[in-house]
Design brief:
The chain has a single domain, classed as PK beta-barrel domain-like (M1 Pyruvate Kinase, Domain 3), CATH 2.40.33. It is 17% helix and 32% strand. It has a 7-stranded mixed barrel. A two-stranded antiparallel ribbon has the order 3-9.
Amino acid sequence: MRNPPPDSALHALMTQFPRAGRVEWIGLRPARDVPMQVVDRAVATAGGGLDGDRYAGGSGKRGMTLIQAEHLPAIAALAGHAQVAPATLRRNLVVSGIPLVALKGRRFRIGAVVLEGTDPCDPCSRMETALGAGGYNAMRGMGGLCARIVEGGTLRVGDAVEWAGA
């Protein structure tokens, strides 16, 4: 969806968030096919990624990946599990309290870090193995958001996730 004109009623609705979100979990993917490293803080580099993550060297639109905490129980249920650990889904951040889909094409802030939501973070075929048969489809529409790092800094578990305009 393209952004509506700034003076439209729809634009006003799309820029209203009832509250800030919160970072609940941070994970780094040091390399392909290795376990995630769970950390309580990470350093984000503008134009790059998270230090210690396999995409840290300049991944452009996919500098960081985020998933909605509220979607984890739904993904688990659809995949036939009681719960699913964030590391299983291989996203960098789990955030709660703010709709990630509303941040696509927009700038937002996590602590001192400024990001821009670029694309949906669609599931990959590895989710069939990670979650079992049907795991790919269990995640469709709930895979999260890819983001470009506009201004770097350190982000931490517990940091607020807030719309930054534009």
